[in-house]
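Hi team,

As requested, here is the filled-out complex form for the iron/sulfur cluster run. I kept the field names the same as last time so the parser does not choke. Let me know if anything looks off before we queue the next batch.

— J.
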Amino acid sequence: VRSLYIHIPFCRGTCDYCDFLSFPLDREEVLQRYLEALCVEMAFYSGEVFQTLYLGGGTPSILSAEQISMIDRCLHDSFNLDGLREFTLEVNPETVDPVVARRWTRAGVNRVSLGVQSFDEQVLSAHHRRARPCDVHRAFQIFRQCGVANLNVDLILGLQLCHAVPEERAAVRIFEEDLNRAVALSPEHISLYILSLPEESTSTAKEHPSFSEQTVENLYLHPVRFLADHGFPQYEISNFARPGFESVHNRQYWRGGEYRGLGLGSVSTLGNRRMRNVETLQDYLHLTESGRRPVGEMEVLDSPVLKFEKIMLALRQRDGMDSGELLGGMPQPRKSELLGYLTSLRKLGFCEPAERRLALTPKGYLRSNVIIADIIRLMANP
Ligand code: SF4
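And here is what came back:
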C-alpha cells in the first residue's frame, strides 16, 4: 500500500490555537494559482499508484465545484488510483453545501473528517472557530445524504477551558457534553486530540487558562471508557472507531508504510528517504511554476532513526509491538535492564500485562513521550 497526502493550506479565518501550516485566504486567485501548481507537482510523479488518498489542510473543503473537478482531473491524469480504498476529505463544517459535497463524492471521497472540536457555541467563538453547532449537524447530514458511510468527528480536549468558560467544573461539563453530542451524531470514527500549546506566544497560550495535568488525565481516561462502551474502541492514542472503520490512511503512517506528500510543507517517506516540501508559499509557487520540484529537504533515514520511529509509532497504537522484535539482538545486560523497566511499567499500569506484546494502556499513552524516550535510552546505553 502506498498513500498520497495533499495539503491545501488555506482557511477562511484563523483559529487561535492553530499549529498547522495554514493561512487565511484573502484573495481567491491565490487558491486557484496554488491548485494549478499542485497539478504541476502531481505531474512530476506521474504513473505512481496509490491506495489511499487524504486531502488535508488548512481547509480543503473551501474548493469550488470547478476547482474540485480540476483536482480530480489532475489526480487521474497523473496517478493510477484504480485500487483506491480510502479517500478522506477534511472538512470545516461551515464550508459545506450540497452541490459541492456531491461533487466531492463524485470525485471518489468515501471518508469525511469533520473538524468539530467542540459543540459549544461559547467555546467555538472564544477560539475564533467559524463553525456553529448547527453547521456540524447540517454538514454531517449532507455528506450522509451523498452516501458517505464513513464519517469522522474531530474533538479537542482542552479548548473548553477558555476566557469564555474560565471555571474548570463548567469546562469539564462542556467536554462531557461534547463527547455525548459526538456519539449522538452516530459517526463511524472519533478522533480526540489533547490541546497542546505549541508556542508560548500563541494567543491561546496568552489568553486562555488550561486544565491541570491531573484534570487532563481524568478527562482523557473517561472518554476511553465511554467511547468503548458506545462501540468505539480505541485503536490509537487519539483515535476511536467502530470495528472495521479504522483509518486505512493513518494506519499506513503508523505502521511505517510509504507515503507521498504533495503541496506546501508536505512530507514524503519512500523507503529510507524522507523529503520535505518547502514551507513558503512564494517558494512553492515559484519552484513549481518554473518546472522544478518544490522539495526543500531530503534526508536518508538510518536504521537507528527507523527503529526509533517504529517504536514510537507502535507504542501509540493499541496493537503495540512484538516484545521479541524490541529486544531482539540486544546484549544481555541491556536486555535485562529494559525488561526490568517494562516490568515496572506493567506494575504501574502503564502497559498491558501480556509479556509477548508491548502495548501501552491509556494511562501509559499519557506518558508515552517519557516512556518512549526511556526505552530508546535503555536500548542505546553502551
Ligand atoms: S481551520 Fe484548522 S487549519 Fe484552519 S486555522 Fe483553524 S485550526 Fe488552523
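Two things worth flagging: The CA atoms of residues 170 and 348 lie 31 Å apart. Residues 11, 14-15, 18, 20, 22, 57-59, 92, 115 surround iron/sulfur cluster (CB under 6 Å).

Thanks,
J.
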